[in-house]
Write a structure and sequence with these properties.
Layout (H helix, E strand, L loop, with lengths): L6 E8 L2 E8 L5 E9 L4 E4 L7 E5 L6 E7 L8
Antiparallel strand pairs: 1-4, 1-6, 2-3, 2-5
């Protein structure tokens, strides 16, 4: 389970994924709000206005192949 603090686009090339979305309950707990199966050809984008708390899990027997593109404004946040 992870959050994105930047913009992120991804596409599923091969396999099947289960994507779960969460709402934060507090700093240590989250609750599932949505579950969807993603098939090849699926694409999505998330904006940094989040939160974008989700989890991607391979639900099939074959490898899942995804492509992720992240955008991050290093002038606004730095570590």
């Amino acid at each position: 389970i992870h959050d994105h603090h930047c913009s992120c686009c991804f596409g599923l090339v091969r396999g099947a994924l289960e994507e779960r979305w969460f709402d934060a309950l507090d700093d240590a707990r989250a609750a599932v709000t949505n579950v969807a199966t993603r098939e090849p050809g699926f694409t999505a984008c998330m904006l940094p206005s989040g939160p974008n708390i989700h989890q991607m899990r391979n639900r099939g027997d074959e490898e899942a192949v995804t492509i992720h593109i992240y955008g991050f404004d290093h002038t606004r946040k730095a570590s």
